[in-house]
Amino acid sequence: MEIDRRQLRKRFPHLTQEMEGAESKVSIESIRSDTEGGEKAVSREFEGYNPDVIDFLRRCGNGKQAEEVISFLLKKEEISRDYARRLRRQLREKGVRSFGAKKEVDYYLRQAGL
């Protein structure tokens, strides 16, 4: 897909500025000086959180377990055939840890500081 510079600037002004070397700025909304209070605020991060397929795969100890998770979620129609195929390919080519570090028992409780 080709797009001329003028059209790019009009449709994506901030992206164009970034691409042309303009300085990027990120504003900081707040600063926490109380570490314990900050950690408790972050612990609400998992409220209502619903794990996805990657979360389940990160709990697996080996490829066989990961394959079982993919098959189960596919059977329950929680993932598509195409997504299952891509997950299996990644599992086969890169291994179970390519989905992330292993999440041990009580992972979310420890992350929440409970």
Tally of separate helices: 7
The largest sheet is:
none
| Proportion of beta-strand residues | under 5%
**End-to-end CA span:** 50 Å
**Structural category:** mainly alpha
Q: Kindly state the number of beta strands.
A: 0
Low-confidence stretches: none
- What oligomeric state best describes the polypeptide chains here? single chain
Helix share, percent: 40-55%
Instruction: Summarize model confidence as the mean pLDDT.
Output: 80
So what's the overall shape? flat
H/E series: HHHHHHH
| Rg value | 21 Å
Summary keywords:
114 residues; 53% helix
Topology:
Blueprint: H1 5-11, H2 13-19, H3 35-43, H4 53-57, H5 63-75, H6 81-94, H7 107-111
What does this structure look like?
This protein has a domain at 49-114. Helix content is 53%, strand content 0%. It contains 7 helices and no strands. The protein has helices at 5-11, 13-19, 35-43, 53-57, 63-75, 81-94, 107-111.
Short précis:
With 114 residues, the chain is mainly α. It has helices at residues 5-11, 13-19, 35-43, 53-57, 63-75, 81-94, 107-111.
